[in-house]
Design goal:
The chain has about 625 residues and is of the alpha+beta class. It has 21 helices and 22 strands. It has four domains: about 240 residues, FAD/NAD(P)-binding domain, CATH 3.50.50.60; about 130 residues, Elongation Factor Tu (Ef-tu), domain 3; about 80 residues, tRNA uridine 5-carboxymethylaminomethyl modification enzyme MnmG/GidA (Arc Repressor Mutant, subunit A), CATH 1.10.10; about 50 residues, GidA associated domain, C-terminal subdomain (DNA polymerase, domain 1). A hairpin with a 6-residue loop joins strand 16 and strand 17.
Length: about 625
């Protein structure tokens, strides 16, 4: 019999990937006692795939996590080896921060932050069974592989790719949740018995390369930004700060060619994907190299990113070359890539197939509909990507804490955060392929910019007891300083003699008389920081305001009309979110509803008219009928 000091917790988090770490941190920081169970304490917050955070839409999510008091932004900044703001040439709704990270340092910092967080205990073990009440309706804890029962008021499952995980390399099949790590068994089978639907998904990873075997003179250099930004809104996380800090590490770009493609095709007869051994669907927007040369056969080459894995390692991640082909085929194809003639692999690429649970079985809090106080977060819900997993973990941790205290849930709407878009998409639309966030999924993306995530989310997070007072003060200062800049631009004017040479150099029409600064800044290709350099009046009055507030003010002035239109549209749709649907409603009694609508509404059990309107198969006429039935 095992003697454990503590076996009762408020919340148990199963899995210590990105979702599990954020879930544990959020619940613990809000005051719950948390047990984080992981199969391996040495792989907490491991970057299983590429050594990078953020990117298009994903960067916005990381900033939202940070604004809510999560840890991902801080860890990403402190482990960064390169920073880039993507899409700077486009409008601010598209700007997306991205860091290249030191893989080992990233995991080390995450573990350190968790260990420094009060209320979190750790246990290295597998979870083989959930402890559920006799009536099968409420979670009560977990049973581990060692036979230990841990009791709790809520459980958050963040199992990643480990549920019945199966690794594919050519004709070889290896049981595992990640290379060198065992799969997890028992949970899927138990949940299916209870009545959960399950499916299979697939993801993949490229080979890892020895950088000493590469010829970088044959590749293009891709450096970081000269002006380095960061994810976290806290002041002390700026990467590459100080005179003694290392310079950013460059990535490199190379390409496949027709010879590479011909070699890859020789392995198709042994491909698990083409021969039907893999049943699960893979990510549409991050396909394997064999999938790419098949689907885009007209292309003569595909771009590859040669990404360093850290400051003190020679290991390289070959982004864009995910593969499950036989090892010898991978090696031969790699040797034909420019700069890779003498390439040495550390380990081959592989595909992994795993169980997931269609997320339509969840409430917007990420609590399951079938079992009370049981939450799912991350790849178990059909998503792909660290950022998507982390934000789900954060929301599951927050809501598990609120639920056990009988407090109102914390739900973000589609106009409040990308996190709200993601969860709303999953719960109302579901997914049968790995879900990845894009800016195009957000109809209010001009409101959901990366620069204003703190303004949108930190005040509400502070009320929850998650974001710190320091964060709230930073937000208030940012808003006040931004307002000062806007007010100055609205009430003061530029002199023709001071500004005309600059305007002409920007191919912008000169002014004939004093003109309000707000009319100048509304012109394309004109920036506040540029104006400060040539206008002493601006420099004296707003030159000392921090750049975050200046950038915020510039965006608000340049895009004022567009932002206001989006706000009006969001307010209109928000009114539908306020129209609650009674839990006792019997859709079968509403004769005018279509048969499909009745089936979908009974299955999804939407809480509001707005949520009902986003369910696949529900059309506008069904919503009108519901509104009439509810007396609206």
């Amino acid at each position: 019999m095992f003697l454990i000091v503590k076996t009762d917790y408020d919340i148990i988090v199963v899995g210590a990937g990105h979702a599990g770490c954020e879930a544990a941190a959020a619940a613990a920081n809000m005051g719950s006692s948390v047990l984080l169970i992981t199969m391996n304490m040495q792989t907490i917050a491991q970057m299983s795939c590429n050594p990078a955070m953020g990117g298009i839409a994903k960067g916005q999510i990381v900033r939202e996590i940070d604004a809510l008091g999560g840890y991902s932004g801080i860890v990403s900044d402190k482990s960064a080896i390169q920073f880039r703001m993507l899409n700077r040439s486009k409008g601010p709704a598209m700007w997306s921060p991205r860091t290249q990270n030191d893989r080992m340092l990233f995991a080390c910092l995450w573990r350190d932050m968790l260990e420094q967080t009060k209320n979190i205990d750790f246990w290295q073990d597998t979870v083989r069974e959930l402890i559920i009440s006799g009536d099968g309706k409420k979670i009560e804890g977990v049973l581990t592989g060692m036979g230990i029962e841990f009791k709790s008021k809520a459980v958050v499952l963040t199992n990643g790719t480990f549920l019945n995980g199966l690794i594919h390399i050519g004709e070889k099949q290896i049981s595992g949740g990640r290379t060198g790590e065992s799969a997890s068994y028992g949970i899927t089978e138990q949940l299916v018995q209870i009545g959960f639907e399950t499916g299979r998904m697939k993801t993949g990873t490229p080979p890892r390369i020895d950088s000493r075997s590469l010829d970088y003179s044959k590749m293009e250099i891709q450096g970081g930004d000269d002006l380095v930004d960061k994810f976290s809104f806290l002041e002390n996380t700026t990467p590459f700060a100080g005179p003694n800090h290392k310079k950013q590490l460059p990535c490199h770009v190379t390409y496949t060619n027709q010879n590479v493609h011909e070699v890859l095709k020789t392995g198709f007869e042994k491909s698990p994907m083409f021969q039907g051994r893999i049943k699960g669907l893979g990510p549409r927007y991050c396909p394997s190299i064999e999938d790419k040369i098949t689907r885009f056969s007209e292309r003569e080459r595909h771009q590859l990113y040669v990404e360093p894995e850290g400051w003190n390692t020679v290991e390289i991640y070959l982004n864009g070359f995910s593969s499950s082909l036989p090892i010898d085929v991978q090696q031969k194809a790699l040797e034909l890539i420019p700069g890779f003639r003498n390439v040495k692999m550390f380990r081959p690429g592989y595909a992994i197939e795993y169980d997931y649970f269609p997320p339509t079985q969840l409430n917007l809090t990420l609590e399951t509909k079938l079992v009370e106080n049981l939450y799912f977060a991350g790849q178990i819900n059909g998503t792909t990507g660290y950022e998507e997993a982390a934000c789900q973990g954060l929301m599951a941790g927050i809501n598990a804490h609120l639920k056990i205290l009988d407090k109102n849930p914390f739900i973000l709407s589609r106009h409040e955060a990308y996190i709200g878009v993601l969860i709303d998409d999953l719960v109302n639309k579901g997914t049968d392929e790995p879900y990845r966030m894009f800016t195009s999924r957000a109809e209010y993306r001009l409101l959901l910019r990366q620069d204003n995530a703190d303004i949108r989310l930190t005040p509400v997070s502070y009320k929850l007891g998650l974001a710190s007072k320091e964060r709230l003060i930073n937000v208030e200062n940012k808003i006040n300083n931004s307002d000062k800049v806007i007010n100055y631009f609205k009430t003061n004017s530029a002199e023709p003699t001071v500004i005309n040479d600059f305007l002409i150099s920007k191919q912008s029409a000169p002014i004939n008389q004093k003109t309000r600064y707000i009319n100048i800044i509304s012109r394309p290709n004109i920036g506040i920081n540029e104006l400060i350099k040539i206008d002493i009046g601006l420099k004296n009055n707003i030159g000392k305001i921090e750049n975050e507030s200046i950038e915020q003010a510039e965006i608000l002035m340049k895009y004022e009309g567009y932002i206001e239109r989006e706000k009006l549209s969001a307010e209109k749709h928000e009114r539908l979110e306020q129209l609650l649907i009674p839990a006792s409603i019997d859709y079968k009694k509403i004769n005018s509803l279509s048969t499909e609508a009745v089936e979908k509404l009974i299955k999804h059990k939407p809480f509001t008219i707005g949520q009902a309107s986003r369910i696949s198969g529900i059309n506008p006429s069904d919503i009108s009928i519901l509104l009439i039935y509810l007396g609206r």
